[in-house]
Design a protein that fits this description.
Layout (H helix, E strand, L loop, with lengths): L6 E6 L4 H12 L3 E6 L11 E4 L8 H21 L4 E5 L16 E4 L6 H5 L8 H16 L3 E3 L2 H7 L8 E3 L18 H5 L6 E6 L9 H9 L6 E6 L5 H11 L4 E4 L7 H6 L3 E5 L12 H7 L4 E4 L5 H9 L2 E4 L4 H12 L2 H15 L7 H9 L3
Parallel strand pairs: 1-2, 1-4, 2-3, 4-5, 5-6, 6-7, 8-9, 8-11, 9-10, 11-12, 12-13
Length: about 375
């Protein structure tokens, strides 16, 4: 490997454990690794440098856009200063994959969410809108020059093929931190004790309560099951739609819903392991271009999945492939409620779905991060 490519900068404005695993993998493979990010991932090794940029703020649409643009400008300045470094650019902020058009660095891209496609699928903009056309044109220009373009599923790779040749796209599935996330006996789970959930069938949504996540539909499901006190619903997270969820709980008198903030890194493994059923939500349009990372965390704790998403989405394909749960349209809350009740009363099916989830988790471990290193090295 040429000496001037021993340095690599990994960029991700909103990093989490997976980003830390990627940075660790490059560092352990002999690269001099730097992470540019809004925060330092807790699992990132201490010998990896961290260059702080503006943190991603998803509290409102205006704050999202502002922090995205400011973060992109800061990334450009860092990349320009480190012209001798290889770049590994993750698609947050959304315009980050376009920055190499203004630089001479070698680079690879990791696309977790496809932009501007997400704007089209969520009906924010039409296909013929000038922003979509211009952004798509720049995507084709930038992606063409990438050493590799990585994404997380066959469907997303197919969607990216309108920007870059399919043979240039590599699929590396997401993963969970299977070292921290694992099943836990109910009697040992302090989250259940703290929130008085012992003996309950716990249906949990944990994560971003954003505009593309119809979490309020879970409140409707809870209302339909109020007559069954053995079933408890937990929503733990923050985001732009949290006020909508709070209002729905008040309006419906959904006293079987426990609304909590994000759990701390220390408490998160306990909270997720408390779930008898994990809920994944995505608007049907958004589910065509995204697979929530919480899916893999649910696998790791052996939780079956209830998915409110499109039947032909990547999420639905993943759930069916591993037989770990059921997919319902976000509008089909009655059918979802009936399935939850049936699952609550069927421990044999719960055990089988849990075993399937744990088996699937073995395919989605931090070892996947090493696949990026292998393929980046192969481009030298």
């Amino acid at each position: 490997m040429p000496e001037n490519f021993r340095k690599i900068i990994v960029s991700d404005q909103a990093p989490f454990g997976l980003t830390g695993d990627i940075a660790n993998a490059f560092q352990n493979a002999g690269f001099e690794t730097t992470l540019t990010a809004g925060v330092r991932p807790a699992n990132m090794q201490s010998d990896i440098a961290w260059l702080k940029i503006t943190a991603y703020d998803k509290s409102s649409t205006l704050r999202r856009i502002f922090t995205w643009l400011k973060g992109a400008f800061e990334l450009f300045r860092i990349f320009k200063k480190h012209r001798d470094a290889e770049l590994f650019i993750i698609s947050n902020p959304p315009v980050a994959p376009l920055l190499p058009l203004l630089l001479k660095n070698r680079f690879s891209l990791l696309i977790w969410d496809i932009w501007p496609d997400a704007l089209v699928h969520t009906r924010t903009l039409g296909k013929k809108h000038p922003i979509v056309k211009i952004w798509s044109w720049f995507n084709r220009k930038s992606f063409k020059h990438a050493q590799r373009v990585f994404t997380i599923s066959p469907g997303l790779a197919d969607a990216l093929s309108c920007y870059v040749a399919r043979e240039k796209i590599s699929i590396v599935p997401l993963w969970a931190d299977t070292r921290r996330l694992r099943p836990l006996e109910k009697s040992q789970n302090r989250f259940l004790k703290t929130h008085h959930l012992e003996g309950k069938f716990v249906v949990m949504y944990s994560g971003n309560i954003g505009n593309t996540h119809p979490v309020e539909k879970l409140v409707d499901i809870a209302v339909a099951l109020k007559a069954f006190p053995q079933i408890a619903f937990v929503i733990a997270g923050e985001g732009a739609k949290r006020p909508v969820v709070e209002a729905r709980i008040r309006e419906c008198g959904a006293d079987n819903v426990l609304l909590l903030p994000y759990q701390s890194p220390e408490d998160f493994p306990q909270s997720l392991a408390a779930a008898d059923l994990c809920v994944i939500t995505l608007e049907e349009a958004a589910s065509q271009v995204s697979v929530p990372s919480k899916t893999y965390s649910s696998f790791a704790v052996g939780a079956p999945l209830l998915c409110l998403a499109g039947q032909d989405s990547e999420l639905a394909h993943l759930v069916r492939e591993h037989d770990v749960g059921k997919i319902f349209s976000p509008a089909d809350t009655d059918a979802a409620a009936q399935w939850i009740l049936a699952l609550c009363n069927d421990p044999a099916t719960r055990r089988q779905l849990s075993q399937n989830a744990l088996a699937a988790a073995q395919k989605f471990t931090p070892a996947n991060a090493e696949k990026f290193v292998e393929q980046v090295r192969a481009t030298f």
